Amino acid sequence: MTAAREEILARIRAAAGPAATSAEVDAAYAALPRGYRRAHHDPAGAGIVTLFAERAGDYRAVVERVPADGLPAAVARAVAAIPRVPPSVPDAGTPGATDIPRSVLVPDGLPAEWLAELPPGTELVRDDPPLSPRDLDRVSGVITGCATAIAETGTVILDHGPGQGRRALTLVPDFHLVVVQAGQVEADIAGALARLDPARPHTLISGPSATSDIELIRVEGVHGPRNLHILIAG
Length: 234
Prior knowledge:
single chain, 234 residues, Rossmann fold, 6-stranded parallel β-sheet, 4-stranded mixed β-sheet, 7 helices, elongated
C-alpha cells in the first residue's frame, strides 16, 4: 500500500509541477507496463466448445451439438419446430393458421447442403429484392451461419458476410437458427475479435432478445427474435 501511495503522490506532484513536454508524456505512456491477460481459457483446451454451449444455454438459447454430417437433419428438426405463423402476425391464432406454409428466410451464400432435408412444404424466402420490415415480420424464421463465437460469454458474432445477410434479417423474424462450426469458437473476446474485419458491421448475439427494464420483469422479443436456436456442428 505504501508503494502505491507514493506512486500516486509522485504523479500528483509531477502533474502540479512544470508542464511536461509532449515527448516526455509520450515516453511515460510508452513505459507503462502492459502485461494484460488476453485470455482466461486455454484455446487448445478440449472444453472450449462445451463452455460455449453452456454459456449460450445460460442465456436461454436452445443449443445442440451435432456431427458435421448430421447438420442437415438437425436443421430440418429445428425448422420443423418453428411455428408456421409468428405470434406478431394478427391471424396467427385463427383456425387454419397451421395450414399456412412454414416460411424460412435464407440469406445469400448459405450452404445449400444445410437445407437438403427440410420438411416438405417449407417455403424458402430470399431477400432479393430487399424485404420490407413488414415482410420480414411475416416469415416464420431465419437460418444463418456466423463469423465466430465466444466461449467465455456464450456469444455469437455475425459480420453479415455470405450466409448471414443484412442485420435486419436476424433482428425482425421471431425465430433465428444459427449454425456455428466448432472451429469458429474462440475461447475469449480477444481471440474472436482477431478473426473479424473491423471495417465490417458486427452483430453480437448473446441469447434471444430480452429486457427487464420494466419492474425487472423479463420480456423477450423486444429488440430481436424471441427464440434463438444454435447448432454447433463438428
